[in-house]
Design brief:
The chain has helices at residues 17-28, 40-52, 67-77, 100-127, 140-143, 149-168, 187-196, 201-210, 220-231, and strands at 8-12, 32-37, 56-61, 82-85, 131-136, 174-181, 242-245. The chain is α/β, with parallel strands linked by helices. It has 2 domains: 8-182 and 220-245, NAD(P)-binding Rossmann-like Domain (Rossmann fold); 186-217, no CATH class. Helix 1 crosses helix 9, helix 3 packs parallel to helix 4 (100-127) and helix 4 (100-127) packs parallel to helix 6. It is globular and about 50 Å long. Bound molecules: nicotinamide-adenine-dinucleotide. Residues 12-13, 15-19, 36-39, 42, 63-65, 86-89, 109, 113, 136, 138, 181, 183-184, 186-189 line the site of nicotinamide-adenine-dinucleotide.
């Protein structure tokens, strides 16, 4: 079950954290993985990890917020079966202390970046007779995490984008879903703690872990397993849906 043999998969932000776990798992299931990364060294390291284990992967230095770079990269890749819009950045701030520059930076990566990839991928998916799009949103979109104004808004846009795309391409055999993790232990979280709580890293890590009803952060591999299911043929009846993966954060 959940095999992706010979599927061509694009994972944006596949050099780190959740995207990396997806790239590694998808390659293990037989996919040819294309990693789109701002950080080309991180992409190269993930490619090495996958190919050393006998899988197929290629890395591409590309900023998803730059439409020309995205179009050129997707043209180079050619056949696409699955697109994972996962690259994202965080920002701390409320409406009255988020600068225009920071607001635009978050939207340029988290929202415009996903749009750029859809713009480039959908013609290729249609040419290919269909495929799957999976977007990484966040529970921030549903609960509006404190001090994450621009970030929460950007992830809300990903929810709406998922519905819009699922509806528009229903009859092109393209399924589109999103996943909404709560805190997952990745460099994203470590970087956030290091930047904002220097000297109190262990204490804050513990506090953030305990703030989740289940008492710990998620693991990137747990998110990748959900992504694999949603991108597999076994999930063929699922489209236009958001899947929280949150240790009970929203419901408990
Ligand atoms: P991460 O920082 O570990 O990895 C993100 C990757 O995206 C990095 O390798 C980075 O280089 C790449 N990236 C950033 N901007 C880019 C750009 N403009 N073009 C191409 N690549 C770019 O983060 P993560 O924790 O794995 O998060 C992945 C996704 O999951 C993000 O969309 C994030 O918002 C979402 N998310 C994370 C958490 C969490 O707690 N970790 C929770 C909810 C949602």
């Amino acid at each position: 079950m959940f095999k992706l043999t010979n599927k061509s998969v694009i994972v944006t932000g596949g050099g780190s954290g959740i995207g990396k776990a997806m790239a590694v798992l998808f390659a293990q299931q037989g996919a040819e993985v294309h990693i789109i990364e701002l950080n080309d060294q991180a992409a190269a390291d993930t490619v090495t990890e996958i190919t050393t284990a006998g899988g197929k992967a290629t890395g591409y230095a590309c900023d998803v917020s730059n439409q020309q770079q995205v179009v050129d990269t997707f043209t180079k890749i050619g056949k696409i079966d699955i697109l994972i819009n996962n690259a994202g950045i965080a920002h701390i701030g409320r409406a009255d202390n988020t600068s225009t520059e920071d607001f635009e930076r978050v939207f340029n990566v988290n929202v415009k970046g996903a749009y750029n990839c859809l713009y480039a991928a959908i013609p290729a998916l249609k040419n290919n007779g269909g495929g799957v799009i999976l977007n990484t949103a966040s529970i921030a979109a549903s609960v509006g995490i404190t001090d994450r104004f621009a970030y929460s808004m950007s992830k809300g846009a990903i929810h709406a984008m998922t519905l819009s795309v699922a509806r528009d391409y229903l009859h092109d055999n393209i399924r589109c879903n999103c996943i909404s993790p709560a805190r997952v232990h990745t460099p994203f979280v470590d970087g956030f703690i290091a930047k904002n709580y220097a000297g109190r890293e262990d204490e804050i890590f513990e506090k953030l872990s305990k703030s989740q009803p289940i008492g710990r952060m998620g693991k990137p591999e747990e998110v990748a397993a959900l992504a694999l299911y949603l991108c597999s043929d076994e999930a063929g009846f699922i489209t236009g849906t958001d899947y929280p993966i949150d240790g009970g954060f929203i419901t408990l």
